[in-house]
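Methods — Computational structure assignment.
A single polypeptide chain was analysed. Its primary sequence is given first, followed by the predicted tertiary structure written as structure tokens.
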Amino acid sequence: MSQHTPTPHATSAYRSVSRSRLLLFVLSAVMLVAAALMQRPAQAQGPAIFQGADLQLGEELIKQHRCAQCHAEKVGGDGSAIYRPLGVISNAGLLRGMVEQCNSTLNFQMFPEEVTAVAAVLNRDHYHFND
């Protein structure tokens, strides 16, 4: 029996297919990792008290509990005048405490991490504490 030896052309074609498959595999893996990273919720930056806070959750809770409507009823206009009252909220801890006070007073029954998420959104959008 004669042994079949691949021609140089056949070997080159095989290598080309193997490289293409490897490239496709690597690109697929990179795309999967990128998609997974994009699915992570936005997390707060800034003060240590807000590190890891789920900003998307905070935004959803603010809408769910109709915070803007309540603030508008209390101070008029669009309610934004309630933010930064003189001398009341001067750091991130006091901001979180104010959100906890609303949570308790209005019986929202939010968990501590939810209160932190709401406070982190308020800090991002209105207060900008960096301590």
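Note: The first helix runs from residue 8 to 39.
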